[in-house]
Amino acid sequence: MSAHRVAQVAAPGGRLEIVERETPQPGPGHVRIAVEACGVCHSDVLFMNALVPGVEFPVVPGHEIAGRIDEVGEGTFSGWQVGDRVAVGWFGGSCGHCTPCRSGDFIVCENLKVPGWAYDGGYAETVIAPADALVRIPDALAASDAAPLACAGVTTFNGLRRSSARPGDLVAVLGVGGLGHLGVQYAAAMGLETVAIARGADKADFAKQLGAHHYIDSTAGTPVADALQSLGGARVVLATVPSSDAISATVEGLRPRGELVVIGADPEPLGVSPAQLLMSGKIIRGHPSGTAQDVQDTMAFSALHGIRPMTEIAPLDQAEDAFQKMMAGAARFRMVLTTR
Q: Residue 128's closest CA among 26, 23, 38, 2?
């Protein structure tokens, strides 16, 4: 049997180390993917540090996977062929039998199969994945661009398209980092009057380059909510930063029946009172990632509108360095591991 390399963590909180493993065969309903690129996402820390239940070590992280099918398991849907360019994201398959799945809401499957948690992830040369997790990569997208779109891309794209915003509405994107730089591009391409919110006046030009029509410096003297109201109030705020304080500060900037869509994770509670929501009918909701079809829609939209993630590329051998750079907030803006 042949072998392949993976970057694994042997114990909770450990370092990523390169090891060789035997290359398995895909079972029924699965394919084996020759990984070309895998994004490094902050959510990987959940599994590497065993912050969620059911993690088994050693762990191979990675849920922003792009590559080519190199073997199809027996009995797998015949539409998938060896050589097909495919991606797998946070949605790494669903159980098909829980109530959300039976209702067609697969992304909130009670037994969601996230790569790097339910099975070995994409910090590797090879991955075995369920066929229902596969996404066709458009020819226009390089693997290193497609990989981050399978999580960061679909989360921001879907967060906006599932919101109440319609073309012409004022929509604010809180943060212009790993998620936000994609959110601003998507909002502008969707025909939304786009406001970028970030820390410091120095980010204004960059926000405008991404497509923002307005820029709000959250460190300036004017509170963020007041600045949004001066523009007429936001129909939607897409909150991409992992800061409950910064997210909470946008609520009063929503127009009546405005919507705060939270995709930035912070364990601290939001500082929002019921009184801020009741009289004006405001909504706060969390938004998960997206199914394989949602990822495919994200990639098609990105290819059509020329939207790409800003990435820094590192070889698989440097997985630990890439992960630490991401954790330090020094990446601009998505770290991507490559095997070829």
A: 26
pLDDT tens per residue across span 179-236: 999 999 999 999 999 999 999 999 999 999 999 999 999 999 999 999 999 999 999 9
List C-alpha distances in Å: 8 to 19, 25, 97, 306. Answer: 7, 20, 31, 34
If residue 30 lies in a helix (H) or strand (E), which one and from where to where?
strand 30-40
CA 136 to chain centre: 17
Q: Is the pLDDT of residue 260 over 70?
A: yes
d(CA 64, CA 259): 28
pLDDT in tens, 284-322: 999 999 999 999 999 999 999 999 999 999 999 999 999
Question: Quick one: pLDDT band at residue 1, thresholds 50, 70, 90?
Answer: low
Query: What would the two tokens of residue 79 be?
Result: 């539409």
Residue count of the chain? 340
Residue whose C-alpha is closest to residue 182's, from 144, 143, 154, 208: 154
Residue 340 pLDDT > 80? no
Please say whether the beta carbons of 164 and 235 come within 8 A.
yes
Three-state SS for 138-153 is CCCCCHHHHHHHHHHH
φ/ψ (deg, to 5) at 124: -165, 165
- Cα radius of gyration (the chain): 20
Task: In whole angstroms, give the CA distance from residue 253 to residue 216.
Answer: 12
